[in-house]
Specification:
This protein is mainly beta. Helices cover 10% and strands 39% of the residues. The strands form eight sheets. Strands 4, 5, 8, 9, 10, 14, 15 and 18 form an eight-stranded antiparallel sheet that branches. The chain has a six-stranded antiparallel sheet with strand order 1-2-32-23-29-28. Strand 24 (386-391) and strand 25 (398-399) form a beta hairpin. The two termini are 19 Å apart.
Length: 489
Amino acid sequence: MKKNITKADFNRLLKSCLALLLIGNTALITSCDDKASEIGGNILPEKEIVGVYNYNEMALSTNNIFMGKIQSDDVDYALLGQLKDTEFGNTKADFFGQLTIGSKVPNGSFKPYEGYRVDSAKIFLTFQKAWVVGDTVAKHKVSIYRLDQMPDKKQNYYSDTDLTGWYDPSSPIAERVMTAKDILKGAKEKRDSVWNISKHDQQWAFKLNDETANYLFNLDKESLASRESFMEAFKGIYITSQQEDASSIGSLMKFDILNKKSYMTLYYSYIRKDKYNEIIDTLKYNFSFYFNHEAARVNRFTNQNTGGIETGTVNPQYLYVQSLAGSATQFRFPKDIYNWADSVKYDWDQHSNSNDNKIGISTVDLIFHIDTAQSKPKRYTLPSELQIKQKNTKTGKLETPTFLTTSGSYEQAFIGGVVNYNTLTYHFRFARGFLESVLLNDDKIFEREFYLVPSSSKSEYTRVVLNSNATINSEDKRLKLDIKYVKFH
């Protein structure tokens, strides 16, 4: 155990951080660095403080695992493409979902009387330059299929949803080879300087086959009467792709499907004739169908560990955390944490301890350090936030850990987890009262499996490589459970 600051240091820090203490533990993680962060959420008995210390000799048990699947419905963004990641392996993503009527159909149908005819139908998908991961000129053969089975909006869908029997793989309604830079500008598609505007909405456009255009045009009034009736008639689409150039690392695209610029449009016209049956003019019309919150929207993805991630080994040197049901970190707390059970029995109101050991725990922190060489943050986006989850032993689902407070309410066990780009860390802190709940109630925390995963896992490709407690390249950047405590008279 190493002494960090003296009583005089502590008294000065207590005064400087008093305002922050009123805000709570969360603010302390990002607003009080180094010494100030050692104060914690408790107002300590200033006159009795001997010093503040820290102990970080307890090691967590860690593993790299693959998630296999996650719930991936109700997404705001559709993913598409294939990516060969040197460290994490191969990832493939595609999407299925529904479109709905954007507004009331004029006259109830697209051919209310003689003279109307269908022209074409198209699907548009919107994205931005910054949302492309990988090779921006990688060629993808994109195929769009019409669903024969209607997704159930009330049902949970997962990233490994099997679409066998949902569509006819021999009959795409649209198909073409595309790169990220094949964008739509006005009426033409080309590679353009607008690509360099990172926040500019850009579009892919797909012309649907004549059969689909005719089907939409000939829908009756009943099918076009409401969003529900249209989704019964046109059950949805499935968008997938195959990489054309095997030498490329490929790319993953993220499409803003809830953007008003992502839609399906039917183009049709009305030919006006005079009494002599001569054509006077042709009136052009279009009607759009949109993805929205009322419709099912599901991303699917698969991952192959071709990057050499070390799995099946306890305490590997590095920990790999990836979105899209890829790799995750599994960890357990050590049983030695129960050696601190007497320390949490200190009564801060009465300034007394039932076991008279004159030690009180201030904070418990868990800090993950990023290995920048393998994470390659200039090429791949780091998760903006990581979360600690635990597995429900009955359902197998990952849930946010909570604990029962002395007031009888349940609160989140860990706070923090946002990436700190200055220190290149993800910092978690035990919520106030959590350690006490564990130690005093014999909660057997060491028997629980915890998981470190990105906060956004189903609609964005992010990844990070972290140091474990076995990392040997830097003692200061190893994964540690850091317990800060005080001694007093």
